[in-house]
Write a structure and sequence with these properties.
This protein has helices at 20-43, 57-60, 69-80, 84-107, 122-134, 154-158, 195-208, 219-223, and strands spanning 6-10, 13-17, 66-68, 141-142, 145-146, 167-170, 173-176, 216-218, 226-227. By secondary structure, it is of the alpha+beta class. The chain has one domain (6-227). The strands form four sheets. It has a three-stranded antiparallel beta sheet with strand order 2-1-9, with helices on one face. A two-stranded antiparallel sheet has the order 3-8. The chain has a two-stranded antiparallel sheet with strand order 4-5. Strand 4 (141-142) and strand 5 (145-146) form a beta hairpin. Helix 1 (20-43) packs antiparallel against helix 7 (195-208) and helix 4 crosses helix 5. The model has no long low-confidence stretch (mean pLDDT 94). The structure holds iron/sulfur cluster (2 copies).
Length: 228
Amino acid sequence: MPLDDGTIEIAGLSLPLVDVANVMDDLRAVYAEFDQRTDAFKADERNPHLCAAGCSHCCKQGAVFAVTLAEAMLWARAVHALPKATLESAKCAAKDLLREQHRIFATIEGPVDQPGARKEPLFSARISAFNAALGPTCPLLVEDLCSVYQARPMLCRAYGFPVDAYAVKAEGAMVFRSLCVLYENERLVDYVRAEDVKARLTDLSKRLTGGLDPGRFTSVEVVLAEFV
Ligand code: SF4
Ligand code: SF4
């Protein structure tokens, strides 16, 4: 597996990459900054925080989601570094899910799904339909623990926190899509600010491709990505 530059094959695309080492360093810095914000949130005892190792409902109920190319790159590298048996099992599960993804995406009205040129909100709607139909478990969950925890993408880091970047704003209130059902009766007095993060992830992805925006990929496609 190349440590710098090279090509990632993902979702039927073959994307030559540049400046990989620097972009990965900058991505780790974005993650570290976000983790600092969630640590500060947890440190305030007025804020509810229920997540703990082994609590994996969120990785089991509809755990297919969208990631940027920069996140996909770091994450796919961690997948490739898994022990052989774990890697084979994850890829096998992901292949099954990919067949379902293609089938379910095709049932949602709109232009044919086209990785590299996906448009919102159609892409999100297709992912929601996939999760609603199958409620799939993430192929990277092993014995109720994340097998690529250090490299997990932003949404996995955000899940379990009320994060403004993953909120729907309606009638002056925010509904946090980054909170699982276990938070249903919890009282919120604050939230994690991360509106800047999404734009930074997109910028990092553009740097990887030399300026093009490759759009987002599904988590299933990332598990099946290859490096050449
Ligand atoms: S988000 Fe919910 S299910 Fe996931 S670890 Fe946190 S409390 Fe558990
Ligand atoms: S990558 Fe890890 S944290 Fe994210 S859904 Fe999969 S198992 Fe859960």
